[in-house]
Amino acid sequence: MSDFLTLVGARIKQLRVQKGLSQARLAELAELQDSYIGGVERGSRNISLNSLEKIMSALGADPVEALKFGKLDEVVDLSEEAAKQDLLEIHLSLLQERSLPEIRLVHRMVKDMFDTFDRKEERES
User: Is the keyword DNA-binding in the record (predicted)?
Assistant: First the structure.
């Protein structure tokens, strides 16, 4: 998996979730297999331009939207739990291709950040 495929997959997933579609429904609309959609969203499938066009058409979006990675940080009007789950899955897909030392470094950094947040909250209480 490449970082590019992971980003494209995360963006497609974000657009799918925004539309309230399951992977199975998107696959049906795009006339593709749902396992293929899952692989694309995980970044483990090398998506063809033809399939990208089908998926984006099924999402009612211009194909260039799949390449707007900056929008991965945007949280849309979802319930808090759905937005949380969406962001967690995006983070997981970003970490998927990283080496174990890189993942451990990210883990330590996040843990240190949470420890700092917790200490700040304790001082303010």
Answer: yes
CB 96 within 8 A of CB 6: yes
Q: What is the 3-state secondary structure (H, E, C) of the chain?
A: CCHHHHHHHHHHHHHHHHCCCCHHHHHHHHCCCHHHHHHHHHCCCCCCHHHHHHHHHHCCCCHHHHHCHHHHHCCCCCCHHHHHHHHHHHHHHHHCCCCHHHHHHHHHHHHHHHHHHHHHHHHHC
What are the structural domain ranges in the chain? 3-98
**Has this prediction a pTM greater than 0.85?**
no
Residue type, 69: F
Q: What is the pLDDT along the chain (125 residues), one digit of tens a residue?
A: 568 888 889 889 988 988 888 999 999 999 999 899 999 998 889 999 999 999 999 999 999 988 887 766 665 555 677 777 767 777 776 777 688 999 999 999 999 999 898 888 888 87
Distance separating alpha carbons of residues 27 and 94, to the nearest angstrom: 23
**3-98: what CATH class?**
mainly alpha
